[in-house]
Specification:
heterodimer, A: about 120 residues, mainly beta, seven-stranded mixed beta sheet, four-stranded antiparallel beta sheet, B: about 110 residues, six-stranded mixed beta sheet, 11 strands, about 55% strand, globular
Chain lengths: ~120, ~110
């Protein structure tokens, strides 16, 4: 199956700093990538949809200036959490979809962010 | 009311048991139904994918959809300790993977 990687797998940062998380599709070109966050024992909450070469579409309630998404190539999307605060601590997961009418979302392994 | 409801568990069963995991939903537009398995600290992986009502079997896993009741199930036969994970149901109104709504997940532990 298709492989999606995320880097880093975990990160601890101080409040007020910015953190960048990378999502890469390793063996296919991803026309669309999604970013989710997941709190313990809760479901995946879609944050934004990212299409290569265009601006991301954010879900209602997600601050686009705080969660910057860049999908610069067909294999890489980045999520930057700007001026992180403790309430931003969460598990961030990306997924990627290849071209075509229906395709499975292939999920990355997730990045655990802890903001002190 | 959430669009998709799923009992979070936790659910513990002995090895070899038959496991039944369920989701209910309120949006009658959902046509495509999926089950994902998520191991601790990992991303979800697709287990089963079904369209409309009916059953689908894949090895020890059977997915069942009852659209009239807005109820879907995943059955695991001869459960193994390696099946211990969180199981998420997901649904889409279209065939597009771009429109998924997830349940909250059920945490399953299979005891050896």
């Amino acid at each position: 199956g298709a492989v999606v990687s995320q880097h880093p797998s975990w990160v601890i940062c101080k409040s007020g700093t910015s953190v960048k998380i990378e999502c890469r599709s390793l063996d296919f070109q991803a026309t669309t990538m999604f970013w989710y966050r997941q709190f313990p024992k809760q479901s995946l909450m879609l944050m934004a949809t990212s299409n290569e070469g265009s601006k991301a579409t954010y879900e209602q309630g997600v601050e686009k200036d705080k969660f910057l998404i860049n999908h610069a190539s067909l294999t890489l999307s980045t999520l930057t959490v700007t001026s992180a605060h403790p309430e931003d601590s969460s598990f961030y997961i990306c997924s990627a979809v290849a071209g075509g009418s229906y395709n499975e979302q292939f999920f990355g392994p997730g990045t655990r962010l802890t903001v002190l | 009311q959430k669009e998709v409801e799923q009992d979070p568990g936790p659910l513990s069963v002995p090895e070899g048991a038959i496991v039944s995991l369920n989701c209910t939903y309120s949006n009658s537009a959902f046509q495509y139904f999926m089950w994902y398995r998520q191991y601790s600290r990992k991303g979800p992986e697709l287990l089963m994918y079904t369209y409309s009502s009916g059953n689908k079997e894949d090895g020890r896993f059977t997915a069942q959809v009852d659209k009239s009741s807005k109820y879907i199930s995943l059955f695991i036969r001869d459960s193994q300790p390696s099946d211990s994970a969180t199981y998420l149901c997901a649904m889409s109104p279209s065939g597009s993977a771009r429109q998924l709504t997830f349940g909250s997940g059920t945490q399953l532990t299979v005891l050896p």
